[in-house]
Automatic annotation (TrEMBL):
Protein name according to UniProt: BH3-interacting domain death agonist
Main location: cytoplasm
Natural source organism: Pongo abelii (Sumatran orangutan)
One GO term (biological process): apoptotic mitochondrial changes
A cellular component term, taken from the record's GO annotations: mitochondrial outer membrane
Alphabetically ordered keywords of this record: Apoptosis, Cytoplasm, Membrane, Mitochondrion, Mitochondrion outer membrane
Location within or outside the cell: Cytoplasm; Mitochondrion outer membrane
């Protein structure tokens, strides 16, 4: 699946995500449009939600590899897209353990995404370094 994602699609999505004036809703629409284009090339014997989830993650990986400076934006957009469009599907996967009784891999991914999403730094470290001190009042000066 990874190899069948056209470079032009990756480049186009990267250009759209690079535009900082676009809203989160616009970015989600851009990702959905790209995924719909990719879905047309895949057989219908696979569940649509499963295919969309895999393709969303692969497309995020491709865009981040293509333009590393977009890693945070593409990650944020992909997580929002999954939460808005595939939440029910991901939860159903989490509720139904695999044949061996283990927690599905996707549940672990969902937990990590939630953990990372809420722990992203609000103030970049470079601003703190430029100021010569922590911009958070409860922390001591940087040395």
């Amino acid at each position: 699946m990874d190899r069948s994602i056209p470079p032009g699609l990756v480049n186009g999505l990267a250009l759209q995500l690079r535009n900082t004036s676009r809203s989160e809703e616009d970015r989600n629409r851009d990702l959905a449009t790209a995924l719909e284009q990719l879905l047309q090339a895949y057989p219908t014997d696979m569940e649509k939600e499963k295919t969309m989830l895999v393709l969303a993650l692969l497309l995020a990986k491709k865009v981040a590899s293509h333009t590393p400076s977009l890693l945070r934006d593409v990650f944020h957009t992909t997580v929002n897209f999954i939460n808005q469009n595939l939440r029910t599907y991901v939860r159903s996967l989490a509720r139904n353990p695999g044949q061996d009784g283990e927690t599905p891999f996707l549940l672990k991914i969902q937990k990590k995404i939630s953990w990372v999403r809420w722990r992203m730094p609000v103030i970049p470290a470079t601003q703190e370094a430029e100021a010569g001190e922590s911009l958070e009042p409860w922390r001591q000066r940087l040395q």
